[in-house]
Design a protein that fits this description.
With 256 residues, this protein is α+β, with helices and mostly antiparallel strands. The chain contains four helices and twelve strands; from the N terminus they run H-H-E-E-E-E-E-E-E-E-E-E-H-E-H-E. Helices cover 18% and strands 29% of the residues. The strands form three sheets. It has a seven-stranded antiparallel sheet with strand order 4-2-1-8-9-10-11. It has a three-stranded antiparallel sheet with strand order 5-7-6, with no helix packed on it. A two-stranded parallel ribbon has the order 3-12.
């Protein structure tokens, strides 16, 4: 147990380093660097919408120690950045929280039971059936693991309204997507092309961006998925990236 706990402490330190000092790679949420949408898009090497098919907990030998990992398998519905297989499997450090059973000796967080030796605070979690918009950083620690940009910031749950409209929201209610200053992780404010947090209207007047997408900065909370994906796609293109694609010949995951 001591070895496992030490491995998790090491994993947590590595994640913290990756977040605060990536690439290798403000108070629980505040300890993580805030990302706006352009810097989030620039930092990720894979951006996609997909449905979680399976969740598998286990351990991996990483950095010369056994570390808890969770293996997620997604069916990719749409690739916005990066070449992705139809079915993508990737690993994240740590194990997700479990349903609390009310036992007095359980450690709980937000009403769910967690284990000190396997839980990494802030790491995004997904459940089978969830539809997500994910911004994944390049695999690190020898290509073994990844996580969303800014942890919970780069993981958006996609929901469908009775009207049929699809909405996307991360766990901090999309706070700062258009107003957070550039943190310098992968780019500086002088390199901005679309998002300018210091302006009254933070979205640049780009003729390729529809009115629906330009109005996103005026909205609060969940955002229309189609308009958000258009904005992400335009950010990626303007920054010199290639549009995402699904490689139907590749049935395996990038991070197996």
């Amino acid at each position: 147990m001591t070895e496992r706990r030490n491995a998790t402490l090491c994993a947590t330190a590595l994640v913290a380093f990756a977040i605060l000092g990536w690439p290798p790679g403000n108070n629980a949420h505040h300890a993580v660097l805030r990302f706006n949408l352009e810097e989030m898009t620039a930092t990720a090497d894979r951006v996609f919408v997909g449905r979680c098919l399976a969740v598998e907990q286990g351990e991996e030998t990483i950095a010369q120690g056994q570390m808890p990992v969770t293996r997620y398998t997604f069916e990719v519905e749409r690739a916005i950045k990066g070449k992705l297989p139809r079915q993508l499997t990737f690993r994240q450090l740590g194990h997700p929280a479990q349903r609390a059973l009310g036992k007095g000796d359980q450690v709980t967080m937000h009403g769910e039971a967690v284990t000190r030796s396997t839980f990494i605070h802030g790491m995004s979690e997904y459940h089978a059936g969830d539809r997500m918009l994910l911004f994944l950083i390049p695999n690190y620690l020898g290509g073994k693991v990844t996580y969303p940009v800014g942890l919970y910031q780069g993981a958006f749950l996609v929901s469908k309204m009775p009207s049929g409209e699809q909405l996307a929201r991360n766990s901090i209610n999309n706070l700062g997507l258009f107003t957070a200053p550039y943190n310098g992780t992968s780019m500086s404010a002088t390199e901005a092309r679309i998002i300018h947090p210091d302006r009254d209207n933070p979205i640049a007047d780009n003729q390729a961006i529809s009115l629906a997408s330009r109005s996103l900065a005026d909205k609060r909370g969940a955002l229309p998925l189609d308009a958000l994906l258009e904005m992400i796609d335009q950010i990626n293109i303007v920054r010199g990236g290639e549009r995402g694609a699904i490689d139907v010949s590749n049935r395996g995951g990038i991070n197996q």
